[in-house]
Specification:
By secondary structure, the protein is mainly alpha-helical. The chain has one domain. The protein is built from eight helices and four strands. The protein has helices at about 25-45, 50-75, 80-85, 100-115, 125-150, 180-200, 210-225, 245-265, and strands at about 5, 10-15, 20, 165. Helix 1 (about 25-45) crosses helix 2 (about 50-75) and helix 6 runs antiparallel to helix 7 (about 210-225). The N and C termini lie far apart (about 45 Å).
Length: about 280
């Protein structure tokens, strides 16, 4: 019978001198690249200008990284941010917070939609967010798997048969632990398929804000629960009844509930489109 899994994967794929390519960076980039291919498909299916996905990609990359960086220091290391604000844009960019990334992405998409919603091919904030959460879920799966490759964000000790021993993490090595990164990665992957199916079924008839709401409820409800299986990220959380990740997840879930309820109270206006146009993925 399997007792536990020895995890000693090298986080580096290869290096040349001081330059190294790591699994985390590759998976992070793949999340964006594959995601934009999916967004191009969605834009084609709904008669939106595919060229706009290039602009959307820029907004997403900048908003995600800045939001995740600022969020990490604001929520977990505020003193560092106060004394050295430039650390947000200083390599090696260690420290990314998913709650900060969520705020950054929503802000970036609001700015993006302000430029696009007045055009004939209207891209309102809720239209864009309802589609972008599909690829954000996929990117989340890639990033959390990258955390696994880095042996970081580890779980608490456990005796379950699928426990991992993170040999490359000197702080938590030699003790079987929950592979919390894998739990979140699989959850995000399931959400990706669910949201993509939901969009395929409704497309233009998708209730505005419904997919954003489902995303927020799914991701942050599970995040709240998974935090009970994870080691705290910073020492001050050890004295808290709920850690920072759980506290930040509560308003995200409430916001998700609001968007789901609102989406089914607001009628969807389906724009006219050229039905003879056929596209393939």
């Amino acid at each position: 019978m399997l007792q536990y899994i020895i995890w000693e994967v090298n986080p580096e794929i290869f290096h040349i001198g001081s330059f190294s390519v790591r699994w985390y960076g590759l998976l992070f980039a793949l999340g964006f690249l594959i995601g934009m291919q999916i967004m191009s498909y969605i834009f084609k299916q709904e008669d939106k200008p595919v060229a706009d996905t290039d602009t959307l990609l820029i907004y997403m990359v900048v908003a995600t990284i800045l939001g995740a960086r600022v969020g990490h220091f604001l929520f977990y290391e505020p003193d560092v941010l106060l004394h050295n604000p430039l650390i947000v844009i200083t390599p090696p960019f260690a420290g990314l917070a998913s709650h900060g990334a969520t705020i950054g992405i929503l802000t970036g998409l609001w700015l993006y939609s302000r430029r696009k919603e007045s055009r004939a091919t209207s891209q309102t904030f809720l239209w864009v967010t309802d589609r972008i959460v599909i690829v954000v879920a996929l990117a989340g799966a890639c990033i959390r798997f990258g955390n696994l490759m880095n042996s970081e964000i580890v779980g608490r000790p456990t005796d379950v048969p699928w426990a991992f021993v993170f040999m490359n993490n000197s702080e938590y090595a030699k003790i079987p632990r929950h592979p919390a990164q894998l739990y979140e990665s699989i959850s995000c992957l399931i959400l990706f398929f669910l949201l993509f199916w939901f969009w395929r079924r409704y497309k233009e008839r998708t209730p505005r804000g419904s997919m954003l709401g489902i995303f927020l409820i799914w991701v942050f409800s599970l995040r709240f629960l998974y935090e009970y299986l994870k080691e705290n990220q910073v020492a001050f959380e050890n004295t808290m009844a709920l850690n920072m990740g759980q506290i930040l997840s509560i308003p995200a879930v409430l916001m998700g509930i609001y968007f789901v309820i609102r989406s089914y109270q607001t009628p969807v206006v389906v724009p006219a489109r050229n039905e003879s146009k056929e596209t393939t993925l």
